[in-house]
Amino acid sequence: MELTRKKRTRLYEHIVEQIQNMIKDGSLAPGDQLLPERQLAEKLEVSRSAIREALSALARMGLIEISPGSGAFVKEASIDNIIEPLASIMLRETKNVFHLMEARRILETGVVKIAALRSTSTDLFIIRDAVMDIRQDVEFPKDPGEADVDFHTAIANATGNPILISMMAMIAGMLREAYGPSRKKLMGIGKNLWYEHHLEIYNALARKDPDKAAEAMDRHIQTTIDELKRIYRWEEVEFTGK
Q: Would the pLDDT of 179 be above 80?
């Protein structure tokens, strides 16, 4: 492990930067164990407290996993490793929930257009199945959250574009963090309306109509934004859409 010492006011930041770079360039691979605290401190000629601070920061970023008694290991890269630290930072302020919704609106109205043109009969079956799950969930006292995530994820999968699929997975994960606890309140828009929105999107996809699918998706997300504003009583951030 080639590490160098660099004098900075906050030494731990330099340690974090060096380990990040080693993970990026492949010098440290998933599963690799970092040197023990004492050896790292001696190699860098810094205190063990600076090493501990750096390791804690890397763990919060989802890059390493610290196992008491065993040491620190590089984690396997995954969407969850990105979502959790990003969501915890981004969603501390209510306004960022709306920034997330704005990003979702831009992404999903484009994604659904592509899905309308590329979806196979299998894709449509999976999307329709999610709609039916939403219908069943709203008819009974059950949170339709997972069925909703399945619906939007299935639409992204129907594009066949791995970048869009990964972006949607990240958005979906952040949405769970953002308004998971408020999802039942979101049902205040009306259980039937919630189901009808998803059915309308599915019907447009089944007809291979990208423009109608985008309109239906935009209407659904805008309604969700309006309801979130009511829940949070937030008036400062305005989303006028297109």
A: no
For residue 190, what pLDDT is reported?
60
| Residues whose CB is less than 8 angstroms from the CB of residue 10 and which lie 6 or more positions away in sequence, other chains included | none
- Its pTM surpasses 0.70: no
pLDDT band at 191 (very low <50, low <70, confident <90, very high): low
Residue 52's alpha-carbon distances to 13, 38, 47, 84, 116, in angstroms, are 11, 10, 9, 21, 50
